[in-house]
Amino acid sequence: QVQLRESGPGLVRPSETLSLSCTVSGTSITADYDYWGWFRRPPGKDLEWIGAMHTSGDIYYGPSFKSRTVISRDTSKNQFALQLSSVTPEDTAVYYCARAPYLTYSASEYEYWGQGTQVTVSS
Predict the structure, then answer these.
(1) What is the tens place of the pLDDT at every residue in 10-19?
(2) Were both Cys, which of 37, 45, 97, 99 would link to 52 (CB 3.0–4.6 Å)?
């Protein structure tokens, strides 16, 4: 059973960097040909695709996030991470990690999801 769990601070100050981790169990993040992605849902809005990392280590970012986002991984912990810099209150959202069998920005095509973690950007 593949399981994902997000973790990280629930409160980030404006202009700082948001850092989240996704711990994966039930499979290896370097196995097969999967894509490990990040989404967010701001209050009252739809899910937004932030980006994804292939099992090979190749990384893909959504255009609106590319300039201030870094996705990385720690294979020894079977985790992948999200860093979003220069945050503003508009980055307040529930953040999710998920897995898809191919590269896609469509949430409906991701098979496994974490439960989500609320991040609030506020001073």
Answers:
(1) 999 999 999 9
(2) 37
